[in-house]
């Protein structure tokens, strides 16, 4: 019994780790899945739908990275990060809602836990998107090193 309980906690922990790790990719995944389903419904076949889905997912992720890297306005960067965090919040809500149902909790508690999980997953996704490009490379907190006019390894060392 103890081993089964420890194993279930380990599996739940691994699933939550996977959820947090893949939260940034929720928007490209949803976009790719939608495009693949659209292509399949328009008779592209399984392989064609898969190719369309992968291409759209890659383009969605690439465009998001380029936008976040090139936009200097903090408000627009926050908007791009929020666009990536919204599908992650939906995925987090669904995952926590499903996992909390395993324990036999009441519906009100499941919704409360799922809402907290959605907020946490969205915050992690936003932080990960922001961490890809931390800020304007032209402005640094420490600033450039002062020029001393000295070269290391010369007679000026001393």
What are the salient characteristics of this protein?
single chain; 158 residues; mainly alpha
What does this structure look like?
This protein is mainly α and 158 residues long. The chain is 73% helix and 0% strand. The protein contains five helices and no strands. Helix 2 runs antiparallel to helix 3 and helix 4 runs antiparallel to helix 5. The protein starts with a helix and ends in a 26-residue tail after the last helix. The relative contact order is 0.11. About 5% of the residues have low confidence.
Give the overall average pLDDT: 79
Largest sheet: none
Q: What is the helix fraction of residues, given as a range?
A: over 70%
Report the total helices: 5
Rg, nearest Å: 23 Å
How much strand content do the residues show?
Answer: under 5%
Q: Kindly report how far apart the N and C termini lie.
A: 69 Å
Q: Given the C-alpha coordinates, what overall shape results?
A: globular
Q: Strand-and-helix sequence, N→C?
A: HHHHH
The total beta strand count reads 0
- Sequence stretches where pLDDT stays below 50 over 5 or more residues: 136-143
- Based on helices, strands and strand pairing, what is the structural class? mainly alpha
Oligomer: single chain
Layout of strands and helices, then pairs:
Blueprint: H1 2-22, H2 26-41, H3 45-70, H4 74-100, H5 107-132
Summarize this entry quickly.
With 158 residues, this protein is mainly α.
């Amino acid at each position: 019994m103890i081993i089964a309980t420890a194993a279930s906690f380990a599996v739940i922990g691994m699933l939550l780790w996977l959820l947090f790790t893949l939260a940034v990719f929720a928007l490209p995944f949803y976009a790719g899945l939608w495009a693949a389903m659209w292509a399949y419904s328009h008779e592209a076949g399984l392989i064609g739908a898969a190719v369309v889905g992968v291409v759209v997912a890659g383009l969605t992720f690439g465009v998001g990275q380029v936008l976040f890297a090139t936009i200097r306005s903090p408000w627009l960067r926050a908007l791009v990060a929020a666009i990536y965090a919204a599908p992650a919040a939906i995925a987090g809500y669904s995952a926590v809602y499903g996992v909390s149902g395993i324990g036999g909790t009441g519906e009100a508690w499941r919704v409360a836990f799922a809402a907290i999980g959605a907020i946490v997953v969205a915050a992690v996704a936003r932080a990960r998107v922001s961490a890809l490009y931390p800020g304007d490379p032209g402005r640094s907190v420490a600033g450039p090193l002062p020029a001393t006019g000295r070269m290391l390894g010369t007679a000026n060392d001393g």
